[in-house]
Amino acid sequence: MVSVPVCDAALKEINKKLLEFKYIALDSSDTPYATSQSAPINELTTNGAARSAATVSHDSETGVVSMSKQFVFTGPAAVKAICPMNNATAGQGIGLYRYLPASGLLPAQFEAGGSLLVTIECRMSRPA
Fold first, then answer.
1. For labelling, which of 49, 63, 78, 85 has a CA lying 20 to 30 Å from the CA of 55?
2. What are residue 25's phi and psi, to 5 degrees?
3. Sequence-ordered strand ranges (E) for the chain
4. Alpha-carbon Rg of the chain, whole angstroms?
5. What are the pLDDT digits (tens) for 35-75?
């Protein structure tokens, strides 16, 4: 196998594929992430925690894809992980990754009226 470097312009174009992962799913499982996981383990679908489209943008200069979604909860929701997905329907699609915030960054449970702002910045880069 031969490793071929990609030019900067191509890398920025490849980054645009990350725009497909614009749906944010919330997961109540705190199981550690494994690269074999392709979706939430226990996706939240009620009380304002249902998978939703984020506002997305692509910076053509840097190649960075930014996503932002504010969840407002209508009832209890124990959010443990955040999953950018490529499909709007719960239980469908492929997840980019499962982000588990460090212990203590999220409350044990959100209550009605609580909110969570999810902001994600993605970029593909060359290995070091």
1. 78
2. -110, 140
3. 23-27, 52-53, 55-58, 65-72, 81-85, 115-122
4. 16
5. 898 999 999 999 999 999 999 998 888 888 999 999 999 99
